Amino acid sequence: MFSKACEYGIKAMIYIAQQDAGQRVGLKQIAQATDSPEAFTAKILQMLARNGVLVSFKGPSGGFSLPKDAGSVHLNQIVSAIDGDEIFTGCGLGLAQCDGNKPCPVHFKFASVRDGLSHMLHSTSLKELADGLDSGKVFLKQ
């Protein structure tokens, strides 16, 4: 459903949100904690920083941190920054021309799935997911 980059981005952002507020987290630490390749993780994190979802600090004491409270960052912001908004508006079969007036064969069934996914992404905060990790009920790595 999400690109591999988006999956890594979501995991990285949850991990960063789990750290102490305002604490800078290093690239190697993020990549190791999320089982993601370091070079690919760096590109993803820079993409998130360019889109204002993450703050990047250069230099020996550099790293990454959230620009605001984890409760105000939602999954839809991460998905949009990495994969774009196609997941919220696109055709289930990938057709360029698909809407209520000229639907593809799965249009009406997919619309409800897409709407449910959109609702979940817009209503789920990083804080909520980081709190789940802290409780030990969910995991980022197997």
TrEMBL record:
Highest rank taxon of the organism: Bacteria
Record-linked PROSITE patterns: HTH_RRF2_1, HTH_RRF2_2
Gene3D superfamilies the record matches: Winged helix-like DNA-binding domain superfamily/Winged helix DNA-binding domain
GO CC field: cytosol
SUPFAM superfamilies: Winged helix' DNA-binding domain
Record Pfam families: Rrf2
InterPro entries, sorted: TR_Rrf2-type_CS, Tscrpt_reg_Rrf2, WH-like_DNA-bd_sf, WH_DNA-bd_sf
GO molecular function, one term: DNA-binding transcription factor activity
Record-linked PANTHER family: HTH-TYPE TRANSCRIPTIONAL REGULATOR YWGB-RELATED, WINGED HELIX-TURN-HELIX TRANSCRIPTIONAL REGULATOR, RRF2 FAMILY
Protein name: Rrf2 family transcriptional regulator
Organism: Croceimicrobium hydrocarbonivorans
